[in-house]
Every structure is written in C-alpha cells, then in structure tokens.
Amino acid sequence: MRLRGPGIALTLDACPGGFDMRIAAALIETGTPATIMLTGAWLRRNPEGLALMLVHPALFGFGNHGEQHLAPVLGSRRIFGQPVAGTLAAIGREVSEGAASILRATGAAPGWYRGATAYYSPAAMPVIQGLGVSIAGFSLSADQGASLPAGMVAARMGRARDGEVIIAHINQPSRASGQGVADGIRALHRAGGRFVRLDELGEVDAITKSEQ
Ligand SMILES: [Zn+2]
C-alpha cells in the first residue's frame, strides 16, 4: 500500500505488550503524527500509554489491530507463532470487538484495520471490508516485528519516500528496535519529511498492493 499524494504514513502496531516511551517521546518532541494500530489486549494493559497519546490528538491517530491479536486467517495453524482466528465468524468478532474497544477508549471508531501478522485469508477480506473498514497495508517494514537492531531500523526508515506507508512496533519497550524507530523519526524530521495519519485519508488516497 502506498499513498497517492505527498506524505509518509508512519503506522505503529500496538500488539499485546508494553508502551515504548522512546518512540512516543520522539513523536511528541518532533511533532510527528503517527497512526497507532491498537489491540484490545494492549489497551487493557496500558492505560497510561493511552492517556499520554490522548492528550496529543494532533499527533496520534488510531487504527484497529484486532481485539485479541488473532491473525485473520482460516484454519488452525500459527503464523510467526501467533494464533489465527480460524473461522470467518471469529475474524468478524476480532475486527468488530477490536473496533468497539477502540471506540470506548478513544471516542472514535477506527476506519482502518490491520490484522495480526498482516496476513489475510482471501475469503476474510470481503468480511472485513463488509464491516466498513479499510485494510491497512504497508510498503516499508522498518523493524521486522521489532526484531532488528536499532541502526538497521533507522537506516530502513531513512529510505522512506513520499507516499510510503511504514510499519513498525510500539509494544516492545525492552527491544533495541524501538530505539531505531525513535532515531528514524528524528532523522526523517530533520530531513523535512511530511507525515500524514491514516485517519486523515480517504480510501481513495491509498493504493493497495493488488492495484499496483
Ligand atoms: Zn501485531
């Protein structure tokens, strides 16, 4: 997925885990907007992180990363160690219950959904879109699931161009990757990067992979 028109969309998945203050501090310090893809599971464990983001409404937008962080995939296997929802009904619940948790927490219903693992069974996609949300892809993986060293994460972010949709993670405060995301934000800011949030875009502003 890329954006039509100028701007870099920084999307940060809040998979179950903690809150990476290194990243939040870099966003606030540089005035950089970002889209936090929230899980219900993360919201229940991080009320202070949520409160900090809510007092900066110009910077933090929110998307849906699922209620329990179940991959929107049919069957019974695991992907990257993550359980899958398994059925279309469970996928629908993962999306709609996640949206309800985000509405309760932030006061707004999310317009974008990214499934756990970012893999989707083809049959799941019309079910998800039928719930009135757009599927948030990405064009640049900055941290490979918060697994890369800081220098490599910052270097990858430094390659972002206008139209890029960056994915990284804000739920792993004890891993080195998060420092790289913070460094990458500061470097893009110094380079004059212009950022947009997904909730500022309409569906037509984004080009999904299948259209390219
Ligand atoms: Zn995730």
Ligand roster: zinc ion
- Report the average pLDDT across residues: 95
Order of helices and strands: EEHEHHEEEEHEHEEHEHEE
Query: What are the segments in which pLDDT stays under 50 over at least 5 consecutive residues?
Result: none
Instruction: Please name the CATH architecture.
Output: Alpha-Beta Barrel
Q: Which structural class should the secondary elements be placed in?
A: alpha/beta
Tally of helical runs: 7
At the fourth level of CATH, the homologous superfamily is Glycoside hydrolase/deacetylase
Number of domains: 1
Break the fold down into its secondary structure elements and pairings.
Layout: E1 2-3, E2 8-14, H1 21-30, E3 34-38, H2 40-45, H3 47-54, E4 60-64, E5 71-74, E6 78-79, E7 82-86, H4 88-106, E8 112-113, H5 124-130, E9 134-135, E10 140-141, H6 150-158, E11 165-169, H7 177-190, E12 195-196, E13 206-207
Parallel strand pairs: 2-3, 2-11, 2-12, 3-4, 5-7, 8-9, 10-11
Antiparallel strand pairs: 1-13, 6-7
Helix pairs in contact: 1-7, 6-7
